[in-house]
Amino acid sequence: MRIGILTKTSRSYTAGRFRDAARERGHRVRLLDPGKFALMVESGRPSLTFKGRPLTKLDAIIPRIGARQAEISTSVVRQFEQQGVYCANPSHAISIAGDKLRTLQVLSRHRIGIPASAFVFDKADIGPAIDKVGTPVIIKVLSGTQGAGVLLAETRKMAEAIIESLQIAKQNLLIQEFVSESRGRDIRAFVVGDRVVAAMRRIAQEDEFRSNVHLGAFTEAVELDKEYERAALLAAGILGLRVAGVDLLESNDGPKVMEVNASPGLEGIEAASGVNVAGEIIEYIEKQVTFPDLDIREHLHLSKGYRVVEIPILPKSPLAGQALHETPFKEQEILVLNIKRDSIVLPSPSGTEKILPGDVLLCYGKELVLKGYIPQRMKKKRKSAKDSVPENPTQDSSAGAQ
Length: 402
Ligand SMILES: Nc1ncnc2c1ncn2[C@@H]1O[C@H](COP(=O)(O)OP(=O)(O)O)[C@@H](O)[C@H]1O
Ligand SMILES: [Mg+2]
Known about the structure:
alpha+beta, Rossmann fold, 13 helices, 20 strands, binds adenosine-5'-diphosphate
């Protein structure tokens, strides 16, 4: 294969490891600075040049996108996607992971532990938000990395003062529950495809609550519990990342996902775990390269009147208890793409699969027909909250491929 590594810093440990691992496996590699691309956006012919010249067709791209120039780099990845080049991570997922708030928003729809967090715009909302998550409280500048921009305020008063002054400085902030039992430590789980290939624990210097390696934290190898492994895979899966560094706090209630890194560095994790993570990623790309990304929504929008929606199954739903082939779905040309049950997903379920209360069916079909299956939550709630409030938090009647 011809592999391009998108990286600003060609002399970094991580870029070097990718280059060596790819060469060891017989591939050709080029390190490409995202800032040196020009993107040509023409109807029907998306193309690009690198340093003013057309680029020989690549088979795969490994994006290394830092906080700086994230937008430029992500648009380069998007251009490769338009050309059908396989990218280790899709551009839309990179964008979500680059934003701590967006990440938590997306994760919060699923059954996955996250620290209680609030994002406020108005001064009047600061106090109540702090009360909600409790003190001491963590305050995060959304654009911060490597521990800079993460503060711990012991009291409500201190927190309010900090937040107000940061807001004056036009910073976007996240107010977050301090997971005190995980003070100064966290877990980095390195996800490649559907596996956690390596994991480590980071332990901060004394007197420091942030366990960033840049702040002097040391690392140790860990054997992950199933629960932590599952949370890491789920977080990466929900965001749509195939290669991800998932950071988890070790709370008394189990793992809490703090952030998900779409361009995780290799130095710390390879040293701590002894695993050839770069090699694992190249090997994974070799297997996946025939499946470049496509934006399913774009394709579906081409068929007017059709939609992808989530159908939540309430306890009283006539569908509950039926096998798929017993439902009218087939006659109505409704395709069940998957079934979400608790925290697992059953892809492409067979006709004999039984629908259970609490399931969420991801369906493709005619908009008008699908409409009949969406519970009318708003109306019912007003009538009697008691017998119609669904248990499942994913009951969003507007959910679909918008
Ligand atoms: N809610 C929290 N509870 C306890 N510790 C936290 C919390 N959020 C962050 N930390 C600590 O601060 C460190 C940096 O926070 P993080 O959100 O990862 O920011 P950055 O992107 O700057 O690394 C984490 O590695 C962790 O040790
Ligand atoms: Mg971090």
